[in-house]
Each structure stands twice: as structure tokens, then as C-alpha cells.
Amino acid sequence: MTPTRETRLEPIRKPIVEPFLKASELADCELYWISVSSFPPPAPQRAWLLDFFPRLHRALAEKYELRGEFFLQHKTVTAVEQIFRKRASELLPKLGLARRPGAPLPPPPTKDQLMAAVHGAPFDVLTHMPDYCYWLRNPDLVKMLEEFSGLGGAAMFYLKPDPSAKPPDIPIVDELRKLFPQMQWDKLDMMTKAAFASKDKFLTESKKLFGEGLEQDPTYDGLPYILPMLGTSDFFSQPEEERKKWFELFDLFWRESPPDKGIYVASKLPLEELLDGILQGMKEEGKIYPLR
Questions:
Q1: Integer angstrom CA distances of residue 163 from 167, 168, 283
Q2: What is the pTM assigned to this prediction?
Q3: How far is it, in rounded angstroms, from Cα 71 to Cα 157?
């Protein structure tokens, strides 16, 4: 008897990544880029992005058990300074350095520049400041995206939880909750988690990976962490060995990048099918990304 041959009734569907563009040249990682018309983006683009990134956040937690850490560049905080200061006790910001790998710190102003400024010459203090950033340890990602993304200075990286940064269980706390229900226990829990988060190993590891060349700078020892300010061009200009070093710190990284006129997502984990599920679901809900 001649065996029957199975036939495929439906063609294999290629995962969709639009409106993202995927870099096909990189074999050791995946890089996706989505354009924005400006920073801040127009309202329709911003609404779509505010819908997409929480979905990505949840999918990464479910599929890869990753947790996300949110960062905001200091130079963009001036645009939202009032709300940032008002919510500082909830955001629990921790100041660190954002740096392109290998880039020197900006030089301090010269005596002549300071004297000229005293006599009315234009002086931009930001040009002499390093690119500091804030690590926001509030777990409410949706609210942080709504308030602080879109300014061109937001970034997140995703990595496995560090057991050493987990607060210990204190049985007596459950009894105290019953005795004193009027206390702000949720806020206490958040502050406790933030305090133990300072023991996370990514802090010191980020300094080793992205602080190379700064070790002798007087400010180096006081820096709790260094956030990489990578552009899409860095993924193509640097050798594979260098890219692998970056991914020793995080599994996935996304960043608002004004020089790239968009937002990129870089991952060492397979991401195409995960993105396909998110984007297909949004498409079925009628949520189409407006290109302009």
C-alpha cells in the first residue's frame, strides 16, 4: 500500500512585527525599532505605546519570568519636575549615571567660561553635567509610563529576580496589620522592597560593565549603578563579543532614543513570537499604530 501523504491546508504564517522593524543582520540578539514622529509623540502614537508596553511587560513576566526596572534620564525630568517632586516619596528615585560605553564625562566649565557667565554670557549648565538618571523603584509601571514616558529619556531593562534583593518574611507583620489596619501598610511594603532592592547585584555589575575607563574618576565610587545609553548604531558597530557583554546585565532592554527618532527593543531571548501575539491581539482590537 502506498502511504498517504499529509498535506498542509494552511500556509505557515510569518509572525508579524509591524509597526516595528526588525534588524536582520544580527544573529546573537534581536533588535526591533518603532518610529515616533517626535518626543513627546503625538497623542495617537502615545496612546498606542502606552497600551503596548504594559502588555510586553506582562508577557515577559509570564513567558520568561523577568522583572522590569524603569529608568528616567535626569535631563528630561525638568519637563515634569512638579509631578516628579510631588511623587518622589512614592517613586523612590535613586540617582545613577547614564553613559554611552567608553564615553568620557563632560569637562567642568573653565574659569573663563564662569567669568563670562557672571557678566551675562550665555551659559548652559547641562552641557557640563554628566547624563545622570533616576532608577524609579515604584512597581506601578502603567502609572510611571503615563507620567514619565514619551519625553525621550525613559528606558527599561528586564532581568531575572535576584534572591538577595528579596525582603525576608516577617510573620509578626500579619498580626500587626490586623491590630492597626489604619496604617499605610502598602506604602511600608513598597519602601521595604525598595530598601532591599539596593542589594540587587545588577547595581555593581552595571558599573563593571559600563563604567570601564571611569574607575579613577572621583565620582565613580559614589555611583550606585551605570545605565548604558546605547543607540541602534551601537548594535551594528560593535563586535558580537561586546554585545554579549551588554546582555550579561539584562535579558531585554528598551529605550526611547531621540537620535534614532524612535524606540528600540533589544533582546537576547527569542522575541518574535511573543511580539506577534501582542501585536496580533492589538490588531484584532482595532488598535493600529498611526505612523504620523
A1: 9, 10, 38
A2: 0.84
A3: 9
Place of cell 555593581: 204
With respect to residue 58, please indicate whether it lies within any of the assigned structural domains: yes
**Cα–Cα distance measured from residue 93 to residue 224, given in angstroms and rounded to the nearest whole number:** 12
Question: Which of left, alpha, beta for 83 (phi over 0: left; psi -120 to 50: alpha)?
Answer: alpha
Task: Give residue-wise pLDDT tens across range 95-130.
Answer: 999 998 888 887 777 878 888 778 888 877 777 778
Under the phi-then-psi rule, with left for phi > 0, alpha for psi from -120 to 50, and beta for the rest, what region is 177?
alpha
CB 215 within 8 A of CB 199: no
**Cβ distance 91 to 84 under 8 Å?**
yes
DSSP letter (8 states) at residue 96: E
Q: Residue 204 belongs to what domain range?
A: 21-162+200-284
Ramachandran angles phi, psi of 33, nearest 5°: -135, 140
In a domain, residue 187? The reply is no
3-class secondary-structure state, position 71: strand
pLDDT digits (tens, 9 = 90+) for 4-49: 555 455 555 678 799 999 998 898 999 999 999 999 999 999 999 9
Among residues 115, 112, 130, the alpha carbon closest in space to that of 220 is found at 130
